[in-house]
Amino acid sequence: MTDLPRLAASTPGLPCRPDPEPFFSTDPTERQYAATLCGPCPIRVQCAAYAIDNDEQDGVWGGMDLAARVIGCGTVRGFRVHRRRGEDPCPRCQTAHEESVTADRLRRLGVEHGLGGTTRGYWLHWRLGEEACRPCKTAQARKSAEQRAQARARAERPRVAAVTPGAAEPLRGAPEGVHRLAAAA
Fold first, then answer.
1. How confident is the model over 68-93, as a mean pLDDT?
2. Rounded to an integer, what is the distance from CA 91 to the centroid of its chain?
3. pLDDT at 87 over 80
4. What distance lies between CA 33 and its chain's CA centroid?
């Protein structure tokens, strides 16, 4: 359990000391302002842990008000709760989400490298913002060459007009395969 009072007494320059009013305001704008003041605080993490450990119901602690502490701001779960509520995720939840996505991509990239480099690995490198390794580049180049060869083969195939038995004669000047519509009787 965090001994916040002792830690706060021994830490100079805390942002909540000069004016504690916004930290316990009922106005959401003032609470948001107080939360931004907590950003550079050297004991912000311990302050948030204290509020969670002691079930503090009022005030901004460690940059989080009660709602943020309940949804788990700063976690992937908090990110999902924000999204479910139709809110823009707070910066801490956004960061936690991005770190989780990056870790998952790195894990999947390890699997693709275990297969000797793949096109999926190539795109994972790209999503991670890094240059692809040689095996992944080779796999992507091979796939691109195959796709180009297939496209050339499709383009070189002779075009055969489909002839339907009993269809009307093609219109004069119309492209091959276009037929007159039969008049409704």
1. 80
2. 13
3. no
4. 27
